[in-house]
Amino acid sequence: MLSGMSDPLGRFSLRARYIPEQLAFIKTGYTRHVLSLAEFHDTIRLRVPTVPRLWPIPAVEGVYLAEKGRYRTLDSARPTHYVVPDTGTASGLSVLPAMVLTESPLHGEIPSVWDPRGNSFLVGVRMPLGETRLWRLQRVMAASADSLAQRKRAGVKNARGGEAPAKKEDESLLQPAWLPESRVPVDLRPVDEPDNNLFVIIPREALTPGVYAVDWGSLLDTGVLEQRVFLFAVADPQTGAIPEPEKTEEELKREELREQQRQQRRKEMDKATNEGMG
Predict the structure, then answer these.
(1) Which residue has the higher pLDDT, 93 or 165?
(2) With 80 as the cut, is the pLDDT of residue 52 above it?
């Protein structure tokens, strides 16, 4: 095995009686790059025209947004089970990401040469490369499976006798939840093959405004290799915020019913107060 040290200008040289099969560039805390030298075996003097760029590797595994040579970690959460009316059970999230991008990260054609100092793009660090998925999430009204189980243990039965929340008894348990809406096609490009300590996640199309999640099976409860889900959002260019989904007809009716109930309670309180004063 041959080894060499670079000079203060980053230049280095190796002396050997023969040209090795490969030349490895290694630096602690950075990706490793292996350069094949097979095409140079018939030469006497070898000069590598372009020294590969080594990428810094974050110390903690996860998913990051790389921007101009810096890494920003994505928020992570663990999915929980929800019961969606008229649909059934599903895994989802109750939190929204703090990281909101003003535009879609790098997407489309895979560059032939990567530059970690370029514009924003998604990277996975020491995660299962082959099982990486990107999802667009949608907001729905659902009841936590845990809250339904607690109510059942307390002796309050579902009026329907099934899993879906009843319209009256369990309406108070419904809450906004973020569930998978559609899978986003991506290309995964390892930076340091064959180590695969760091890889780039490239959506094939520009991401439209909305909430997104990177996962490894936990959102579908299939072949879970990593329980965590990493979240980010793309902002609405008009408002600069996460776009609010349009309320469904059922949500509008539920809000109208709640408002009617609130007004009815207020009338009853006013009536009781007036009678007491009289």
Answers:
(1) 93
(2) no
This prediction has a pTM of 0.74
Average pLDDT over residues 34-47: 63
For residue 263, the SS3 value is helix
Spatial neighbors of 194 by CB under 8 A, at least 6 apart, are: none
What's phi and psi for 225, nearest 5 deg? -100, -20
DSSP label at residue 97 = -
Residues 6+ positions from 157 with CB-CB distance below 8 Å:
169
Taking alpha carbons only, the member of 31, 16, 13, 4 closest to residue 191 is 31
pLDDT confidence tier of residue 84, bands split at 50, 70 and 90: confident
Rounded Cα distance, 24 and 95, in Å: 43
User: How distant, in Å, are the alpha carbons of 59, 82, 126, 149, 204 from that of 188?
Assistant: 21, 31, 13, 40, 10
CA distance 36 to 9: 24
